[in-house]
Amino acid sequence: MTLLALPGLIDAHVHLREPGGEHKEDIASGTAAALAGGITGVLDMPNNVPPVTDGQQLERKRRLFGERACCDYGLFLGAGEQALPRPEDAAEAVGLKLYLTPTFGPLRLESLGALLAIFKGWPAARPIAVHAEGMSMAIPILLAQLMGKRVHLCHVARADEIALVRAAKERGVAVTCEVAPHHLYLTREDARALGALAQMKPPLAGAEDVDALWRNLGVVDLVASDHAPHTLTEKQSAEPPPGVPGVETMLPLLVTSVHEGRLSADRLVGLLHEGPQRVYGVRAPEATVEIEVGGHLEIRAANLHTRCGWTPFEGRRVNARVRRVVLRGRTVFEDGHVLGRPGSGCQLRSA
Ligand code: DOR
Ligand code: ZN
Ligand code: ZN
Predict the structure, then answer these.
(1) Nearest CA to ligand 1 atom 7
(2) Is 346 domain-assigned?
(3) How far is the CA of 244 from the centre of ligand 1 (A)?
């Protein structure tokens, strides 16, 4: 067995559900799960209840995170047709999140007019993170170029999408992108067996899509979990909401790929430490994440800290285990125990 020591890692795409969805997850349980997964900072999405679309909601959520977060955090501002963001709220947000296709929650942009107004008003220095799928991914790429704004494409999942991102980057368009672990490790074949427990937006794709993501990892700026917990009862209902938990399983899965020689340790640091800092202009705090590599383990929901109590990776073999996490000189996780206290997390600051 060997020990791998990594710097502070940021999961740049999570849904911790507070306020409004605390029965699925809350700030304390979600940030504890992050630490247990070797993640020292999270960037939280705005599709709360009510959605975080103005400075007041953002400030309310910032206070909740200040009281309850066990790891560091940054918060996104959201926008809707009737809720255009005010540029002065940009300073407190890590970025703006736009939803161009239907997903969980009410935030959705449908009109070109609203989209253009938002792009026009948003400061060029702060990223606009976009949920787009398939054809709609071409829209923010064009707007990034036409309007000189920084666009980040969330959870790129398919061969044609990553090909489009590659082409845009090769032409010098200021776009960045992320890939989620479920799109790197699961296919629609798995979705057949797992049913709603493997349903998310964008959905799982084919083996050829998964291959394309791995082959094009060079154009990927960061890997982020899109941790989107829902309860088992909700997932087993007639209309299951899309989304799967992932903040706690992302690092063991990726380190297993390092162990297997599919990914270098340097590239892993690029995707979870450097990438999130570069894309969102935040500074990762002083931290060390120690991982034991080489053992034979299985992912089990029973060992996880997320409130939702299940994982799409149940029973999956991994060769990596988070042993200890030290954040700002304090041991916040060790041998299965979260030691970081609610309220000890700090807001991630602009670099
Ligand atoms: O599957 C998803 N679930 N995709 C999203 O974009 C939102 C997320 C959620 O909040 O549940
Ligand atoms: Zn999304
Ligand atoms: Zn998401």
Answers:
(1) 104
(2) no
(3) 8
Q: How far is the CA of 261 from the centre of ligand 1 (A)?
A: 31
This prediction's pTM = 0.98
Cα torsion 190, 193, 198, 202 to 10°: value is: 60
Tens digit of pLDDT at every position of the chain (351 positions): 899 999 999 999 999 999 999 999 999 999 999 999 999 999 999 999 999 999 999 999 999 999 999 999 999 999 999 889 998 888 899 999 999 998 898 899 999 999 999 999 999 999 999 999 999 999 999 999 999 999 999 999 999 999 999 999 999 999 999 999 999 999 999 999 999 999 999 999 999 999 999 999 999 999 999 999 999 999 999 999 999 999 999 999 999 999 999 999 999 999 999 999 999 999 999 999 999 999 999 999 999 999 999 999 999 999 999 999 999 999 999 999 999 999 999 999 776
Minimum-distance ligand to the CA of 203? 1
- Beta pairing partners, 175: 151
> DSSP of 190-227, one letter per residue?
HHHHHGGGG--SSPP--HHHHHHHHHTGGG--EE---B
Ligand nearest to the CA of 228: 1
Overall domain count for the chain: 1
- Which residue among 18, 47, 99 is best mutated to probe the pocket of ligand 1, counting the most ligand atoms within 8 A of its Cβ? 47
Q: Where does ligand 1 bind, in terms of residues with CB under 6 Å?
A: 15, 47, 103-105, 131, 200-201, 228, 241-243
Whether the CA torsion 186, 168, 98, 92 is positive or negative: it is: positive
Mutate to test the pocket of ligand 1, among 48, 52, 104, 153 (most ligand atoms within 8 A of CB): 104
Q: Does 347 fall in a domain?
A: no
Q: What's the CATH number where 142 sits?
A: 3.20.20.140
Parent domain of 162: 2-338
Tell the burial category of 224 from Cβ atoms under 10 Å away from its Cβ (0-12, 13-18, 19+).
Answer: buried
